[in-house]
Design brief:
Elements (H helix, E strand, L loop, with lengths): L2 H7 L19 E2 L3 H29 L7 H26 L7 H17 L4 H24 L4 H20 L4 E2 L11 E2 L2 E2 H19 L1 H11 L1 H6 L4 H27 L1 E2 L5 H13 L11 H20 L5 H29 L15 E2 L5
Antiparallel strand pairs: 1-6, 2-5, 3-4
């Protein structure tokens, strides 16, 4: 989904797929030389994909012969899976207009609750359902408090603290071990593909479809873009802001279960490092922290870039902390590139000074959806 589509849908415009609209974000824009504008839009929206392909080519020679292999590709995908699932949680929160910092706590609490239920002898499906319920409950509480006027960062930090304490109380302060009933979604491979990669693929496919092809998803993004505009067209914006928090909590719960399935234990101590990696992946995708605009597929590419860099450095025998440095530099470059491209697109899409309301229809018209 392009940023133009996101910008348009943030005010309720109709995306491809037939979703009805309330308002239109932009009028049709006159662009002679539309090909150049479309190239700039593509570079702005998918520059991160070009960056990843460039890194793959460079590392294929630099870390030859072990990097550019199917076995290493599977390792990179598996390593990116956990970052990607938590990045989806961060992304859903940001798209609805708030950065959810309680994600590690939601993941930890969901994993501990699921582990205790499974270890008690209850069916595995019940433990998984309980984990999802935890994510829904945390998201609903966070969203409700934020809609009461409390600061989202303060609310989610408080939730992280409370959830960490609750997880330690529930587990007795020690990891819940011996959870080997979830190996089918942890260390198992299907057709050579690690199970976490398949789970993440399903989550991103469903999330992409929801945000781009459903009325509810469009409204979630619209609330993140301009909540007052959404209210003015008669939509109950508060419920969609809360829904964004709930979706974030669900993804966090799935991430916690994936970690438990991979390690066969549920630790009561949240991993803040996973949150930082997730935020980095979201930032690499060019998604603004103000919300309302972004793309889940680009977030996925951001997570893969982080894993790709780490893999190449490990193969070369370089200490892993250099991966953090390289990722930080790429993040700054990616943000700078996105800003330059956005400015160039805005300049090219600006109507000519001589244009008036009485002018006839332009010969070439490009709508935000077409761009």
């Amino acid at each position: 989904m392009t940023d133009q589509q996101n910008d348009a849908t943030s005010a309720g415009a109709t995306p491809r797929g037939g979703v009805a609209s309330e308002t239109r974000a932009f009028p049709a824009i006159d662009t002679s030389g539309g090909t150049g504008v479309k190239v700039l839009i593509f570079l702005r929206n998918w520059g991160i994909l070009v960056l990843w392909l460039l890194l793959v080519v460079i590392f294929a020679f630099w870390a030859s012969p072990y990097f550019f292999t199917i076995a290493n590709a599977a390792l990179v995908a598996n390593a990116a899976a956990l970052t990607a699932i938590f990045a989806a949680a961060v992304g859903f929160g940001i798209l609805s207009g708030a950065l959810d910092l309680s994600i590690p706590g939601s993941a930890t609490m969901a994993a501990v609750v699921a582990a205790l239920i499974i270890k008690s002898g209850a069916p595995v499906w019940l433990g998984l359902a309980a984990a999802i319920a935890v994510g829904v409950a945390v998201g609903a509480v966070n969203g409700t408090l934020v809609q009461r006027g409390l600061n989202p960062l303060v609310v989610t930090i408080a939730s992280l603290t409370v959830l960490t304490g609750l997880a330690q109380v529930a587990s007795g302060g020690v990891p819940v071990t011996g959870i080997d009933q979830l190996t089918w979604m942890g260390n198992t491979r299907y057709w050579g593909i690690p199970a976490p990669v398949i789970v993440v693929g399903v989550v991103y496919l469903v999330g992409w479809f929801y945000l781009t092809q459903t009325r509810s998803g469009v409204r979630v993004m619209a609330v993140g873009g301009n909540i007052e505009a959404v209210r003015r067209v008669g939509i109950r914006a508060d419920r969609y802001r809360i829904l964004g928090f709930i979706l974030s909590g669900i993804c966090a719960a799935i991430g916690g279960v994936l970690v438990m399935a991979t390690t066969t234990q549920a630790s009561p101590n949240p991993s803040v490092d996973l949150l930082f990696s997730a935020i980095t992946a979201v930032a690499l995708s060019g998604m603004p922290l103000t919300g309302g605009r972004g793309s889940l597929p680009r977030v996925l590419v951001g997570a893969i870039i982080i894993a790709t860099i780490a893999s190449a450095l490990i193969i070369r025998g370089i200490p892993p902390y250099w991966a953090t440095i390289v990722t930080g530099v790429l993040l700054i470059l990616a943000l700078s590139f996105e800003r330059v491209m956005s400015a160039a697109v805005a300049k090219r899409l600006a109507p000519p000074p001589s244009a008036t309301l009485a002018d006839p229809k332009p010969a070439s018209v490009v709508t935000p959806q077409e761009a």
